[in-house]
């Protein structure tokens, strides 16, 4: 019996299963890409090599100026989406015995940091649309 193993399963055999699944996944992706390149017809025509953008023929040089505020909105969305992911595990741990007050204080600190970030963005005028 290995380190902490029960029932014939050792500590390292669990990692070997993960390693085999990883190798199997890499092999599947490699075989899929190889089969695609071998079996897919490759008949490039001038029309197929044109840039396609939402059904509109490309006109001009292709450089369009986008205001940075849209990137800021996207960045703020990503930040709060990731923060929401942290709220779900917290909610499950909060109900566990012995974690109530500690996790409540930690979550108020976490939400406090978020509130400071939102307040900073508001004071800088990032959250105004026009």
TrEMBL record:
InterPro entries: NADH_UbQ/plastoQ_OxRdtase_su3, NDAH_ubi_oxred_su3_sf. Its EC number is 7.1.1.-. It is an enzyme of class 7 (translocase). It holds the Pfam family Oxidored_q4. The lineage of its organism: Bacteria, Bacillati, Actinomycetota, Actinomycetes, Catenulisporales. NDH-1 shuttles electrons from NADH, via FMN and iron-sulfur (Fe-S) centers, to quinones in the respiratory chain. This is NADH-quinone oxidoreductase subunit. One of its GO terms (molecular function) is quinone binding. It comes from the Bacteria. Keywords: Membrane, NAD, Quinone, Transmembrane, Transmembrane helix, Transport. The keyword tRNA-binding does not apply. It catalyses: a quinone + NADH + 5 H(+)(in) = a quinol + NAD(+) + 4 H(+)(out). The chain crosses the membrane at residues 12-39, 70-88, 94-122. It is a multi-pass membrane protein. The keyword Iron does not apply. It is found in: Cell membrane; Membrane. Belongs to the complex I subunit 3 family. GO terms for cellular component: NADH dehydrogenase complex; plasma membrane. It comes from Actinocrinis puniceicyclus.
